[in-house]
Design goal:
The chain is α/β, with parallel strands linked by helices. Helix content is 42%, strand content 18%. It has a six-stranded antiparallel β-sheet. Strands 8-11-12-3-13-14 form a six-stranded mixed β-sheet, sandwiched between helices.
Amino acid sequence: MKIKTVRIKNFRALQDVEIQFDKITTFIGPNGVGKSTILRALDWFFNGKPDDLNETDCSHGNKSLPIEVSVTFDHLSKIDRSELGKYTPESSNSFTAWKIRHPDGKETLSANAKSYPPFNAIREKTKAADKKQAYAELIKNDETLNLPAWTSADAASQALTKWESEHPEQLTESPESLQTNFFGFNGTGKMSGLFDYVLVTADLRASEESTDGKSSIIGRILERSVERGAADEEIAQVVLESRRKQQEIYDKTFKNQLNDITTQLNSVVSSYSPGRSLSVTPAEIDLKPPKTTFEVTVHDGDTQTFVDRQGHGFQRTILISALQMLAQSGATKNEGVICLAIEEPELFQHPIQAQAFAKILRSLAENPEKRVQVMYATHSPYFLEARHFDQIRRVTRSTDAAATVSVHHPTSLSVKNALAGIMDENTVDRRLDHNVADQLSISLFANRALIVEGPTEHALIYGIGDRSSPGCLEAEGVAIVCAGSKTSIPLAHAILLCTGVPTYALFDADGCFEKRAKEKGKSNDQIDKERRNHSEENRKLLKYFKMPEVDFPETIVNDNVAILEDCLESFLNDNWPEWTESCTRIERETGITLAKNQIAYRSATIAAQGEVPDFLQKILSKARGVTNNNTNGDMDY
């Protein structure tokens, strides 16, 4: 059994979202958009207790609406079907359950079962007499059902169930209420041992999870891996024997003395109340056999300490190790699935450790014998795996008053569709790994992105932002992506858009390439080839951005892309000579060649005198998502 889809309504920041889940589901996105809220909503669904939620958990104060979490499971095993019974008939490949907190604070559970609709009216009756009447009316109105006559409520219920099992083609989905202990993961509910949801929050303390308790990670490991029954039985016998021996000591020591006291007391009592007597005996010894418990301690050389005495990094290492062992222990005792939901798995881990942990989680989730499902909310690129691009879920939140949360599900197919006619599918497959894991690993976490061709544009735009306030673009969550060439811009742009990252682009049309080629002494054949290449790439980019296709477009800024009719360097020479002077000065004073040093380019941009050209200012505004009357629509230069 695995989680297939989840729908969350009116829970904190999540007004109404539906999410598809995989073996591993990676939630990314800016801070405060609701990644962790998804994991906590599931924790309430599986492990929540009455009164865990209150009115403040309603989305945007919508107290009149219920909080609802529904989960659909698939990959149902024979054991799942056996335990869940009517909720998972052979004709069904999934099972759905709802948990609802109503405005009055009452919580209810319901599940999706298949039934024959005319039977529901009978099952809804609470009194036997009402059931009998409804049953009789059903038989009278539809003799083709061939149902037996009423004898008792149980017999009628069995007859209805038998008829449904013999006519699956006539059944429809029919949600019905469940017992409150249905999910009882730590008890005896139907789901106990079938699906175990373990939430590891960012503030989880290893010391608490290292105690031997029902809900702790160590407790769950021990429950799955250690058979305490035999020892507990032997300890119970020891306690009984101890109780017997203590009684023998009491008899030997106190029996004669207590008999004398009893005789004396009764001689007095009988004179006041004939026919009644007393006895004085040792009180019964109340010795309860203790349950076997365990504790975790840390050995550091000759020193032994408890977990809470360790640093955060080592405590997190203990948690990670315990999670790994918990997942691996899943196959040792039962057929159930363990779902590890981890908030910030990279927390307190060195990069190498984070990478190792990501690989461990991957190996556990993909091993069918381990029966593990994994989900995490992360800010680390080490948990982005390009080969599993389809398992990324990017969570965003609108900036308007509604603050609507959306979950974007990128797929390699959606990227290929966005690039249809621009890049063939084999090239996408070949380059997706590098783009996601390396080139775009940071920008996938950004609020917005600006794609540029090379390091000069990359350093220049960041430097322009620094002129107003150091690091302002980074603080706003704006990532500038260096594509390496304009050929690579469409792929990077498509990946970011399919992941839900608002993205702007800037590229050079290289309209004056011929002049530079001749200055370098290139032949006419070389120039013609270069012209064809530039023309082809320009047309592909224009087609991708849905603009009129020409060989060499003019300088323009529109809502999706900005184009320089030649190249950035020539534009700066013509429109911001102070920038060129600043670059020359820094090269002369430091001996650094700017073409090989982005930091120096950025420093030169910050130090340059004069005004930043309006064209660049507008690109920066577009990249930051700022719109006004001067930046709407197309602008020619």
